[in-house]
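Protein in question filed below.

…
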Amino acid sequence: MSSPAPLAVVPPLGILPLARTAVDRGSDRRVAADLFEQIRANPATRVMYMAGGKALINDTEMVLARVAESGFGEVPIYLGRTLADAQEPAGTDVVLVTLAREDPALENDGARWASLRDVAVLLGELDTALFVEAAAVSNWHATHTHCPRCGAPTLPEQGGWVRRCTEDNSQHFPRTDPAIIVAITDPEDRLLLGSAAAWKGNRYSTLAGFVEPGESLEGAVIREVAEESGLVVHSPQYLGSQPWPFPCSLMLGFTARTEDAAAAVSDGVEISDVRWFTREELGNAVASGEITIAGGISIARNLIERWYGGPIAEPQTEARA
């Protein structure tokens, strides 16, 4: 059956930048063996090109091109049908074509190649939804060319949403790795932020980590916070989620509380420093450039600003993803 229409229920974090629903992914249509032959003949069909994780952007719009005379190439992926009128009418079929490298011949009318991190805050609902979907599924294809069971090559089918082993006939599906991300507060309603050892400069964000097999989301919140900061937290509350296709995560946002703020200490491995902030301290630290925080498309920024009570002013520097 077709994908459902967007739900009216909005989570506490609201509709996050990368969590927009603007495409009917058409799971019922993917099973048709001649899907791409059908839609190739339709002059309304549009193609989204990607190369090296970048897509073609013209100003603040995704470039959705007509089907080339050569067709869709070797590994087309059916992204679905648009749900509402935007730059294309509702019901427009969109196919992802991944190129080995950026093609200058496609850079017409000022179009440029850009990554999702670079342009997500600029794009409209449809373009963002397409870009997130395309980035995630193309990453999966790039890293799952062989069967994990026997090592034989796999070939795409069902509109690019399944890969089948050429040796043992097993089917393999796109993976999504769930990860929790949590805004931790203490009895004084201060916010804990950490700086990852891998980050350059004084960048701080909310703590996060992957959910382990056989673990609940709430259990992951408690475990990850203890591992990275030494804190015992309680009362984890779910606020919302959004995909993070770098390469295949689903970020699930929580709040949690601790009664022992003084116990906070970085693990020295993943997290190099942890700091408690009042709202005034965080606002001043960001505005002065003393620290930087997660960018606008991230769920981390939304968690931080929800606690803060609104947008946090930053120095006028080059935009970050």
Observations:
- The first strand starts at residue 23 and ends at 24.
